[in-house]
Amino acid sequence: MWITNLVALVLLATATSAATSAKADKVLSNHATILADNSANLAFSLYQNMAKEKDVENILFSPVVVATSLGLVALGGKDSTASQVKTILNASKVKDEQLHSGLAELLTEVSDPKTRNVTWKISNRLYGPSSIKFVDDFVKSSKKHYNYDHSKINFKDKKSAVKSINEWAAKSTDGKLPEVTKDVEKTDGAMIINAMFFKPHWDEQFHHKMVDNRGFLTSRSYTVSVQMMHRTGLYDYYDDKTNKLSILSMPLAHKKSTLLFLMPYHVGSLDTLEKMLTKKQLDTWMGKLQQTAVAVSIPKVSMEVSHNLQKHLEKLGLTEAVNKSKADLSKITGKKDLYLSNVFHASAMEWDTEGNPMDTSVFGTDKLKNPKLFYADHPFIFLVKDQKTNSILFIGRMVRPKGEKMRDEL
Ligand SMILES: *[C@@H]1O[C@H](CO)[C@@H](O)[C@H](O)[C@H]1NC(C)=O
Ligand SMILES: *[C@@H]1O[C@H](CO)[C@@H](O)[C@H](O)[C@H]1NC(C)=O
Ligand SMILES: *[C@@H]1O[C@H](CO)[C@@H](O)[C@H](O)[C@H]1NC(C)=O
């Protein structure tokens, strides 16, 4: 009898807290909702494009932040230079003002440290050649909507120009991202730079002592030594036996977002899985997740990844802004004298044990009996998916974590 009462009490408490948090929760405007949805489509088309590139190992980017960088191009562009942005974001019907305020609203919502308890530092800068002049209006509105700084840079001394970019990125991420790029090829245009640091705060922490060294098989013949953290708990999980992969969802603090792992059963190329990746497929998988006891082992690592997105965005349809003879970015400079030569998108992500206290009530109960094993010791894809807005905060793949090569034990 007392058990029923206890359950009732717990249910009551949960219901009440859900009600209060729902009241405090701001509802996203209509256009922000549309843009959130479309930024998720952007996530997959951009990912597919990047995965085709040879010699790229780890991938990591924030579709929401890429969307706001596109927003900046629309803000500085005229005519088709600007309208191509809307086409990519499938937002042709959204008015300019709504595009900018909607993207700003979305980014503010998902990166709010208070409601999400997330560590997500985002610094954005637009560099222009020293010959140009930034228009005041643009400087103001790009700061207001997209929190962009502006700076002119002299590439006559390329080495020190690159150094100052990297120093800015390191400083704005508290040293977590020491380098955005080693070199800049095209130095005659505008350069967008996003420098980020993201650290998930687990809804249920790992025990800091449940960490040890294990091998991560980047391929069948190459193993690196990484730290792995372990815990058993109740998670949303699905075994896709047809496609031979496991899907695990680990909620982050306040459960407003979740870290979703897509891991093939076996070591090998991620090609097949990557070709399947679409928003629709993701929704299908999400719909099949079921609360399951899972013994989770994942790398306790930090990864720093930097991409130059310029050519990928061009492939997705941003052909005018990046073309010197066609670009009209005259809202930035007042003249048609600028094109977009680089889009550096760099993030550091750190997976650690920290999070909210564990739910100890399930320990020693039947609920955790015979857990499924989720052992992330070979390449996988992951997403930080936002539950409230349905947007994708990050998408990436871990193919080669940092670590020393391990000797073959044969
Ligand atoms: C683009 O937006 C329209 C509505 O504005 C929607 O019906 C359509 O499905 C969207 N396309 C994609 C690929 O998301
Ligand atoms: C938020 O994060 C901080 C720092 O990691 C932690 O101390 C705190 O318990 C968290 N609070 C909630 C409500 O998640
Ligand atoms: C830029 O546009 C012009 C005119 O359409 C075209 O001929 C040229 O190939 C484009 N340049 C690049 C680098 O794509």
Note the topology.
Layout (H helix, E strand, L loop, with lengths): L1 H23 L5 H22 L7 E3 L1 H14 L2 H10 L7 H15 L2 H4 L2 E11 L6 H11 L1 E6 L4 H15 L17 E10 L11 E9 L2 E19 L4 E7 L5 E8 L6 H6 L2 H10 L1 E10 L2 E7 L1 H6 L14 H4 L6 E11 L21 E4 L4 E7 L5 E7 L12
Parallel strand pairs: 2-3, 4-11, 9-12
Antiparallel strand pairs: 1-14, 2-4, 5-6, 6-7, 6-9, 7-8, 8-13, 10-11, 13-14
This protein binds 2-acetamido-2-deoxy-beta-D-glucopyranose (3 copies).
Describe this structure in words.
By secondary structure, the chain is an alpha+beta fold. It has 12 helices and 14 strands. It has helices at about 1-25, 30-50, 65-75, 80-90, 95-110, 115, 135-145, 160-170, 270-275, 280-290, 310-315, 330-335; strands spanning about 60, 120-130, 150-155, 190-200, 210-220, 220-240, 245-250, 255-265, 290-300, 300-310, 340-350, 370-375, 380-385, 390-400. Strands 1, 5, 6, 7, 8, 9, 12, 13 and 14 form a 9-stranded mixed sheet that branches. A 5-stranded mixed sheet has the order 3-2-4-11-10, with helices on both faces. Helix 2 (about 30-50) crosses helix 5. The longest helix is centred in the N-terminal third of the chain and has 23 residues, at about 1-25. Residues about 1-25 have low confidence and may be disordered. Bound molecules: 2-acetamido-2-deoxy-beta-D-glucopyranose (3 copies). One 2-acetamido-2-deoxy-beta-D-glucopyranose (NAG) binds near residues 323, 325 and 326. One of its GO terms (cellular component) is extracellular space. This is Serpin H1.
